[in-house]
Structure formats: structure tokens, C-alpha cells
Specification:
By secondary structure, this protein is α+β, with helices and mostly antiparallel strands. The protein contains 20 helices and 13 strands.
Length: 797
């Protein structure tokens, strides 16, 4: 979308349509709700007098009310250079918020787009918003309003075709394209940046020379506004063109010339509805008209993973075949020698070179990076997470509860079911297109010539399309279909009277891809009129029997009842299980036929003509009289029925009682079994809870008694402890008194002993002193030392 900002006078703007906001200026007080409606007072939110004059007539006529999103389109407005004037309701006068202005701009785009207009000018409101804010809101709203949410609803669909020069020349020669002065395309068509990057990662080498002579052709499905004279339409006095119509326009990218223009609607379609030529097979819906597929979902991750893997391989290759540097010395220079696996080569060395390891230095090369390897693993896991569903998590952990597993399976199936539904709808559109093409271009002679048989006729496709896909959008795998068929087979075994076993078995064989399964099954017998004896034999053999209106019903009933009462046949255990149910059903049919035949015979005899003729008369009076006649005939026939069938009812009751003896017990419905199991489990659980509750109550009583005993024991222990403490205290006091008395006596004894000791020491000391004085006197008298000391004799050494 191309956007231009213009400050010109609105009346001077040349455009397909000029859009102006209309405001409702009508004011009402709360008390005026019940008063008659008055003409709305409307004004255009612009100060340009020419715009207001152009819309004055429709506003004065009350055609414009100013309600929000109301649109009024005026053709050839006076005093304006714009071809049209769109009056867009903006509601009550107020300062329009930006979001409201965006909505108005989007409404204008959608309104004009539906009319095939491709350009317009929007007058920015003059009150409330700033000019720059108003312009921004208008542009944003216009872009959002021009958004194509669906491929089939988009107004332009371009199909880029790359065709070689021979195909291009063939289309020109056949008249599909017009003959233009084409030039040879010597360079390859331009690639997008993503295509170039992807080719670089994958190691693709491209040349600039266009070897195949490819050229780009755009086939555009577009709504195009052509003048009526160019379309060959004559409208008489109508001066306005019919409006845009769908066309297929083919453009050559090299010369920028139109190659062809074709009508893209059915010639007999007055509504000119566009025909569909390209079918969209969506994988995942995305923003805009075009969905995305696996390349878009995983393209970036796949390219990054490819680049990481190539880098790892290159690093490993270089690390396994390293290069090196050779030192030149002497007359022999460095050599480049290629050594193959298992081969020995001679290397020329210099005079001073005795070790090749001294002259060669391998180039240091890093091994493959562990970080790059981890990155590759991360990219692979990221790719798995992108396309992962809860179905992949269902088998990850065997300990997951059944409910969780079922929820994961159901949630994962929603994803696949949505994809399958989109493909189912695409197949339906494809079959419609194929039906239309066959109805237009199919050649009966060509079909016979190519296939050898007349498989279809062109006339087969003249009727409305009745070819639809038979796939079920809710079932996307054979496992689901097989599980569904197995469930039907199980239900048919439980309730055989409700199912057609032949159809059930045929469906199972078809599900197993068996061609023509009916050839392996016994043909389904077709009942035909028989006499009563053959009917009894057929019933005993398990073959179907049926009553017909023209048979002698009373005779058949008598023969069937006699067969049932016969101990050798009807009551024989070999025949009774099969014969009795079929015969009783046949007796019921004969009874009903006899009832209807008798009533109609009596009524016909009374009316003097066949009363079945009255059944085709739709007159209400005749129908009433006919009902009354049948009611009277019933009253006449009733006594005869009672007399005729008086002995029939006991025989039927005995046969039913006998049949119950041979029939196996009726299998219980699994849902009833499950319900009974749930009830039994609930009752068992309740009983278990009651037992547990009783045990809890008993335990509570025991605990209460134990607690009381413990409390009594604690109280007794407390009393004993208190008595013991009293005794201990009395004993302590007595011991204290005794200890004090003993301490006093001991101290007195010690004092007495200490006194005697002191006296003894004084006496000894006095005697020692006397002895010392005597010894000293003796030494003085003798004039020499003696060997006496302190009165003790000490021997000399």
C-alpha cells in the first residue's frame, strides 16, 4: 500500500474517492426519550465549504444520520475533483481517540475495497486529535483494513511461473499469449536473500548465465475496473461503469508487457463471480492470506543445523589431512609430495639434514569444536520441539496415569485433525474445479481414444457438482479407522439383533483393503413367496421367510403353529433355537396381513367398491368418512378375530417359554457392568470406610482410657515424689544437725590434741636446749669438737 500525505485543499484533490467523517449533532435530554423522533442534525468534520456543499442535499434529505460506521457513497460530487465522496459516520461529536479513528479508517478501506476502488483520500478530523496523531491513526487503520485474512478472499493473487523459451514460444504460437517483441533472457531469474543464503549453506554453485532460457511470467488473478466499452457491455442510458470484474492478466517480467487478458467468470454468470484456478493446500494458517508449511516452520533451524554440520565436517576433514611448512636449506628446496594411504615416498634432504622432523612443521589445526557439536545437538532438539505434539509425550513415561495419557493423545489428535480438515476442504475445492473443467473441455472421443473405453461423458458433468471427498476430517489414520471398526464389531456381537452382520463384516474387509469383499461372503438370501411347509423348513434351516399380502394367512398360521407344537420338529432342541423365532415373526406378519385384509374386505363389501380408491383422495370430508367406515368394519371383524385366533395365543406363549430355555443368557451391556462395578466399588469403599471409622473410634476410646490411666499414674507418682521429698528434707535436717554436733566434738578434740602437741613440743625444745648447752660446755672444757649432737651419739666416718 502506497501512502501520500497531502496538504492541498480537499476540493482540489484528484482521487477515486474522498472520505469525510460525519458527526451526529442531535442532542436529547433524558426526559425526551418518549418524544417523537426528530430529523438528525448532521455536520461534516471539516472546514472546507466545497465538501459541505457537495453533501448538503443528502444531509438535508435525512439520508445521512452520522451513526458510527454508517456509509453513504456519492458519485460525481459537485465542486470536487474527486470522483466520489464517501460520508463515514463518526457518531456523537467528541474528541476521537486514536483507536476509534483507526477503526473508521479500516471501515472506509473495506467499504471501498468491496466496490473495487484502489485509491482514496481521507480527510483528517480537525477537532480533538493533533494532526500528526490523526494521520498516524488513519494510516494504521487503513493498513489493518486492507489486510487479507484468507487466500480466496484476497483481491489479487499472483502466480509466478518460470517457463523456458520453448514453452513461451509454444504459448505464443497457440494464441494463448500475444506475440510481442521478446528479448532473450541471458541471466538467471533473481533469487531472494533466503534462497541465496540457503544455496550457500548447501554448497550450491550457480552461474549468472541462464542455460535453460528461463523467464519469469506473472499470472495475476485480479479485480480490474475496465470501462464498459472495452468490455463490450452496452448499458443504454446508464453512464456509470458496472464496476470491477475478475480477470486473469499475464505479464512478462522481462519486457514488462501484458501477454494476455482473460475473463475469469462464467459467461452465463450475471454476478461475475471469480472462478478458482489455484487450490490452496494449507498446513498451518499464518498472518495474512498465505499459510505456511514445514519449510517455513523448520527452514531457519534446518539451515542453521546444516551450517553447523558442514562446519564440523570441514573441521574434521582439515584435521585429518593437515598441511605444514618445510624449511629450505642447502641445494635442495622444499618439495610438495602427495602421499597416498599405504605408500612410502622418498624426500630429498639437505647436507646437514638427518631428521625430517627437524625441517617440517605441521600447521596447527584445531579439532572439531565441542561447542559447535553442542550447538548442532541443540538445533536438532529445537527442531523436534517445534513440530512436537502431546502424542510424542504419550509414550515417554510408562508411569503416567491413564487419564493423563488419554488427555495427551486427545490433545495431539486435535492438531492432526485440524491439518486433515484443511486438506479435506482443499480436496473439495479441487474436485469442484475439476468438475468445472471437465464440463467445459472434456472430449468424449479423446477419452475413448486414450483409454480404450468410454469411462465418462462430457454430459456427466453438466449437472451440479455432486463429487465430494469421502474422507472423514476427524479421522486421519488407519489406526483410528481400524479401532472404530473393531468397536462396531464388538457391539454387533453384544447386540446381534440391532446390527446387520453382513454389512459389519463387509465394512471390516473393506477396512483391510480387500477388493470386492462380497465375493468371499455368502450371498444375502432374498425372501420369496412359499407355501407354509417350505416356510417351516426354511425357518428350521435358518433361512429368511416373509409373509406376502396375497397368501392364505389363516392356513399359514395353522401350519406354523402345528409345526411349533410338534415334539419331533418345533420342540426339537436341534431346530427350536432357529425355527421358533423365525416362525413367530412370520406368524406376526400373517396376523397383521389377515387383520388388514379382513378389515378392507368388510369395508369394500359395505361400500360396494374397492375402498383403496379412497386412499388417493385428499378431500378432508372423504378422509373422515373413510376413517369412520374402517372403524365400523373393525367392530364387525373383531368377534370373528377372537373366535378364529382363540387357540393361537396359548401356542405362542408356550413357544416363547420354550425359546427362553434354549437361548443363552443375554450379555450384559458393558456400560451396565461398569456402572455395577462402580456401585460395588463405592459400596465396598463405604463399608471399608465404616470399618476404618469404627477402628478409629475404638482406638480413640483406648487412647482415652490409656490417657486417664497415665494421668492417674502421674498423679500417684507426683504424690509419691512429694512424700519422698518430705522424707528427704527431714533426713537432710537430721543429717545437718548430726553433722554439726559431730563437727563440734571433732573441733574440741582437735583443739585438745593440738594443745597437748604444743606442750610436748615445748618440753622437747626445752630439753634440746639444755642438751645443747651441756655439749657446748663440754667442748669448751675439752678444747676440741666432740661427736655429740643434740644429745644423740653420731659415729665418725
Amino acid at each position: 500500500m502506497k501512502t501520500n500525505l497531502s496538504f492541498s485543499n480537499p476540493a482540489e484533490i484528484e482521487t477515486e474517492c474522498l472520505v469525510a467523517i460525519v458527526l451526529d449533532m442531535t442532542e436529547k435530554s433524558p426526559g425526551e426519550k418518549d418524544k417523537p423522533q426528530v430529523a438528525p442534525q448532521v455536520t461534516i468534520d471539516t472546514s472546507d465549504a466545497a465538501v459541505k456543499d457537495a453533501a448538503a442535499d443528502v444531509i438535508a434529505g435525512g439520508e445521512v444520520t452520522g451513526k458510527t460506521f454508517e456509509t453513504t457513497l456519492l458519485h460525481h460530487p459537485a465542486k470536487l475533483k474527486a470522483k466520489r465522496l464517501l460520508l463515514l459516520g463518526g457518531g456523537k461529536p467528541k474528541a476521537l481517540p486514536t483507536f476509534e479513528l483507526r477503526r473508521l479508517a479500516g471501515a472506509a478501506v473495506r467499504t471501498l475495497k468491496s466496490r473495487g476502488l484502489r485509491s482514496f483520500a481521507f480527510l483528517a478530523p480537525e477537532a480533538g486529535l493533533k494532526t500528526e496523531d490523526a494521520v498516524k491513526a488513519i494510516v494504521e487503520g487503513a493498513f489493518v483494513g486492507n489486510f487479507d485474512p484468507d487466500y480466496y478472499k484476497s483481491d489479487r493473487k499472483a502466480h509466478v511461473q518460470l517457463i523456458n523459451e520453448y514453452t513461451f514460444a509454444d504459448r505464443v504460437r497457440s494464441g494463448m499469449y500475444r506475440d510481442i517483441d521478446s528479448i532473450a533472457v541471458v541471466t538467471d531469474p533473481d533469487q531472494t536473500a533466503s534462497q541465496k543464503a540457503n544455496d550457500k549453506i548447501e554448497g550450491k554453485d550457480t552461474t549468472t548465465y541462464n542455460e535453460d532460457g528461463l523467464r519469469t511470467v506473472f499470472e495475476v488473478d485480479v479485480q480490474w475496473l475496465l470501462p464498459d466499452e472495452k468490455r463490450g457491455v452496452v448499458d443504454g442510458d446508464d453512464k456509470d461503469d458496472r464496476g470491477p470484474a475478475p480477470y486473469l492478466v499475464t505479464i512478462d517480467d522481462t519486457t514488462r508487457k501484458v501477454l494476455s487478458i482473460y475473463r475469469n467468470w462464467d459467461e452465463d454468470d450475471k454476478n461475475e463471480e471469480a472462478l478458482v484456478h489455484i487450490i490452496e493446500w494449507p498446513f498451518l494458517p499464518w498472518r495474512g492470506a498465505m499459510p505456511i508449511g514445514t519449510p517455513q516452520v523448520l527452514g531457519g533451524i534446518a539451515a542453521a543445523a546444516t551450517g553447523a554440520l558442514r562446519a564440523l565436517l570441514d573441521s574434521a576433514h582439515i584435521n585429518n589431512f593437515p598441511g605444514g611448512m618445510h624449511l629450505k636449506s642447502g641445494p635442495v628446496g622444499g618439495q610438495s609430495v602427495r602421499i597416498d594411504a599405504g605408500q612410502t615416498n622418498e624426500i630429498d634432504g639437505g647436507i646437514m639434514q638427518d631428521d625430517i622432523r627437524k625441517t617440517f612443521l605441521p600447521t596447527p589445526v584445531n579439532p572439531p569444536s565441542t561447542v559447535l557439536y553442542e550447538l548442532l545437538g541443540y538445533l536438532v532438539e529445537a527442531g523436534k520441539e517445534v513440530i512436537k505434539t502431546t502424542l510424542d509425550e504419550a509414550n515417554d513415561n510408562a508411569n503416567v496415569p491413564v487419564g493423563t495419557t488419554m488427555a495427551r493423545i486427545e490433545q495431539g489428535m486435535v492438531v492432526f485433525s485440524a491439518i486433515h480438515s484443511r486438506l479435506h476442504n482443499a480436496m473439495g475445492k479441487f474436485l469442484k474445479v475439476l468438475h468445472r473443467l471437465n464440463a467445459t473441455y472434456l472430449d468424449d472421443e479423446q477419452i475413448l481414444k486414450e483409454t480404450g473405453e468410454q469411462m465418462a461423458f462430457k454430459a456427466d458433468f453438466d449437472a451440479p457438482n455432486d463429487v465430494v471427498p469421502i474422507s472423514d476430517p476427524e479421522i486421519f489414520s488407519e489406526l483410528q479407522r481400524i479401532a472404530q471398526m473393531q468397536t462396531i464389531a464388538q457391539r454387533a456381537q453384544l447386540f446381534p439383533q440391532l446390527y446387520d452382520q453382513f454389512k459389519v463384516e463387509t465394512g471390516i474387509l473393506k477396512m483391510m483393503k480387500v477388493k470386492d469383499p462380497t465375493q468371499y461372503l455368502n450371498p444375502k438370501p432374498t425372501p420369496k413367496p412359499q407355501h407354509a411347509v417350505n416356510e417351516n423348513i426354511a425357518a428350521a434351516l435358518g433361512q429368511p421367510i416373509i409373509a406376502f399380502p396375497d397368501q392364505d394367512h389363516f392356513a399359514h398360521i395353522q401350519a406354523h403353529l402345528a409345526f411349533i407344537e410338534d415334539p419331533l420338529f418345533g420342540q426339537n432342541p436341534l431346530m427350536a433355537p432357529q425355527a421358533i423365532p423365525a416362525i413367530l415373526q412370520n406368524v406376526k406378519e400373517h396376523l397383521l396381513f389377515a387383520y388388514g385384509t379382513t378389515i378392507f374386505n368388510i369395508a369394500s363389501k359395505a361400500a360396494g367398491k374397492d375402498v383403496t380408491e379412497y386412499m388417493s383422495i385428499h378431500d378432508a370430508g372423504v378422509k373422515t368418512d373413510f376413517d369412520k367406515l374402517l372403524a365400523a368394519a373393525t367392530q364387525v371383524a373383531h368377534p370373528g378375530f377372537q373366535e378364529m385366533f382363540a387357540q393361537v395365543l396359548p401356542v405362542i406363549q408356550n413357544a416363547q417359554a420354550l425359546l427362553k430355555q434354549f437361548q443363552p443368557p443375554q450379555p450384559t451391556d458393558p456400560s451396565v457392568v461398569a456402572q455395577n462395578k462402580v456401585t460395588a466399588d463405592s459400596q465396598a469403599k463405604q463399608a471399608d470406610n465404616a470399618v476404618k471409622q469404627k477402628q478409629v473410634d475404638n482406638q480413640a476410646q483406648v487412647d482415652a482410657q490409656t490417657l486417664a490411666l497415665k494421668q492417674a499414674e502421674l498423679q500417684q507418682n507426683a504424690t509419691a515424689t512429694q512424700n519422698e521429698q518430705s522424707l528427704t528434707q527431714a533426713k537432710t535436717q537430721l543429717d545437718s544437725q548430726t553433722k554439726l554436733q559431730t563437727t563440734g566434738e571433732t573441733n574440741a578434740s582437735r583443739e585438745k590434741i593440738a594443745g597437748g602437741t604444743d606442750q610436748t613440743k615445748l618440753t622437747v625444745t626445752s630439753e634440746d636446749n639444755n642438751t645443747a648447752m651441756e655439749i657446748a660446755a663440754a667442748e669448751i672444757e675439752a678444747g676440741s669438737k666432740t661427736n655429740l649432737k643434740n644429745g644423740q651419739a653420731v659415729g665418725k666416718k
